[in-house]
Write a structure and sequence with these properties.
single chain, mainly alpha, Rossmann fold, five-stranded parallel beta sheet, globular
């Protein structure tokens, strides 16, 4: 085919695309690429046609080829970045969107997409910067203003958040995100009636099941604050049911690293495993990390903020640092290998973990590094295998309050979090995790310090002194002012609102307000309450 013929075919394909004939455009490009697979304009047109015909996978494949060959092609870069964002391939979306943002034609839209990617990637400061640049160029961009308000609320900058939410509502009174953020701000300010009215209106008008679940969860929190216990529970139940039924990650995976099936296998294995016969680990060091564990919603984020305020402590927050080690030594092959690891294997496994930890450190000058991942509670035996002398801080809370709080929280549905969409699953999961953790505690020799949530909120200084003494550190008054630091940090857990408030005790015994709803799960939780010496009236 001559160059003239190729050009004519490309013009025909482009005309089909402009006429909304995606299938016609694809057919022409398929023919061209059969003989000229390196023909970038055909790849570009076919990628755009695939968007029109509802084939995002083909669009990403073709536009990725274009972006690698022509990184300066702003049009291809923008659409590739947007598609990758929509597919939750967030890390991959950043480079094409940054490239597209260099082109005046695409700058505003690309920066807006980039801000959404960065926000979902927990890069809040960078996301904020991108939203502000969008709004400098397009002050009437209601979605950017609303998303910035939402982001600022998550970062506990409430006055700024309110300003941007109100600005977005002035531009678009029906903007979902602005209305949601305004309701959250009202609830946090104690204006429960205003928040309830706005949330009820949103719930009635919201057709998207994901957004509706968010609204219902917020409405549940509002009604809980108004002591309307039954209505609150109904909202949480509806919100979770929607996620179970419609979210692609709404069903738990029993054989994931934290799945019920996997944890039961580990418990069965550990029941007969002779940990005291494991080969020695000669690599333990005084500089090895501290581990902060506990069932979710047991106060680990509060402890994280307290510890992070100490000048000698850095906390690594909720990073899956054991992933590679688990894959190699726990999940692939017989578990008996763990006990027979030789010194070289132990050193290799430790290095995998420590290198991952080192990459995430922000303050390497601090002497003590704390790995805070609550559900490492289920892998105490693995912590012991690699770091046999590492101190373990074990956060404990009344199991009825902890499970109720998990059921009420809006978690990112990854790992074990889908179990918390159902109250029975939540209680079963608690029982399974704690059985494994308790068995591990009986077998390991690591020093363990138990910290009760209820004691911390009633006696912060006493709890902090005991915790720091356990870690061999001097007390610092900075830990008592942890809220000041928490306001300046991005806290990527559902506790971001609570940890900047003065300590309160109203969450202690909260389960009693919901006793009738907890009746089906109390038989599995009450024995744990008794074992942990909580009142079992």
């Amino acid at each position: 085919m001559s160059a003239t013929d190729i050009q004519a075919q490309l013009q025909r394909a482009s005309a089909c695309l402009q006429a909304a004939d995606g299938e016609g455009c694809r057919a022409i490009c398929d023919h061209l690429l059969t003989s000229r697979p390196d023909l970038i304009p055909a790849r570009h047109l076919r990628g755009l046609a695939a968007i029109r015909t509802g084939d995002p996978q083909r669009a990403v494949e073709d536009l990725s080829v274009v972006f690698r060959a022509q990184p300066g092609n702003g049009h291809a870069a923008f659409w590739l970045g947007r598609l990758l964002r929509q597919a939750d391939r967030l890390d991959e979306a950043v480079a094409p969107l940054e490239q597209a943002a260099r082109h005046p034609e695409f700058e505003v839209d690309a920066r807006y997409e980039l801000a959404r990617v960065l926000s979902r990637s927990r890069r809040g400061q960078e996301a904020e910067s991108q939203y502000r640049r969008v709004l400098e160029r397009r002050p009437d961009h209601a979605d950017a203003a609303a998303n910035l308000a939402f982001l600022l609320e998550r970062r506990n900058r409430l006055e700024e958040s309110a300003d941007w939410a109100d600005r977005a509502l002035g531009l678009d009174s029906g903007n979902f995100m602005a209305n949601l953020t305004r309701a959250v701000l009202d609830r946090r300010a104690g204006n429960h009636g205003q928040a309830r009215d706005r949330l009820e209106s949103l719930a009635e008008s919201c057709a998207d099941p994901m957004n509706r679940s968010v609204v219902l969860n917020q409405l549940g929190q509002c009604l809980d604050g108004m002591e309307a216990w039954n209505e609150a529970f109904g909202c949480f139940e509806q919100a979770n049911r929607l996620l179970r039924e419609t979210h692609p990650l709404g069903q738990p995976v029993d054989h994931g690293s934290y799945g019920l099936g996997r944890l039961r296998e580990l418990h069965e294995w550990l029941t007969t495993e002779r940990v005291d016969h494991w080969s020695p680990n000669p690599h333990a060091r005084a500089s090895d990390p501290v581990f902060l564990v506990g069932f979710p919603r047991s106060g680990t984020t509060l402890l994280d903020q307290i510890l992070s305020a100490h000048p000698d402590i850095e906390v690594s927050e909720e990073n899956e640092l054991f992933d590679t080690v688990r894959a190699r030594w726990v999940e692939n092959g017989p578990l008996t290998r763990i006990g027979t690891m030789n010194p070289d294997q132990l050193d290799s496994a430790r290095r995998l973990y420590l290198e991952a930890l080192r990459e995430r450190r922000r303050h390497p000058e601090r002497a003590v590094i704390v790995d805070k991942l609550p559900l490492n509670l289920a892998y105490l035996f693995l912590i012991h295998r690699l770091f046999p002398d590492s101190p373990v801080l074990f956060a404990v809370r009344d199991p009825r309050d902890a499970c109720l709080s998990c059921f009420f929280q809006s978690f990112d549905l990854q790992g074990a979090m889908p179990y918390f969409l159902d109250l029975r699953d939540t209680a079963t999961y608690y029982d399974t995790v704690m059985r494994l953790a308790w068995l591990s505690r009986e077998r390991i020799s690591n020093p363990v310090h138990e910290i009760r949530y209820e004691t911390v909120v009633r006696d912060l200084e006493g709890s902090a002194r005991e915790m720091l003494s356990f870690l061999g550190l001097e007390f610092s008054s900075e830990v008592l002012a942890y809220r000041r630091q928490a306001r300046d940090r991005t806290i990527d857990t559902p506790s971001y609102q609570q940890v900047v408030q003065p300590l309160y005790t109203r969450s202690i015994g909260r389960w009693r307000h919901y006793r009738q709803h907890l009746t089906p799960v109390l038989p599995s939780l009450t024995p744990w309450a008794e074992r942990l010496t909580y009142p079992c009236d």
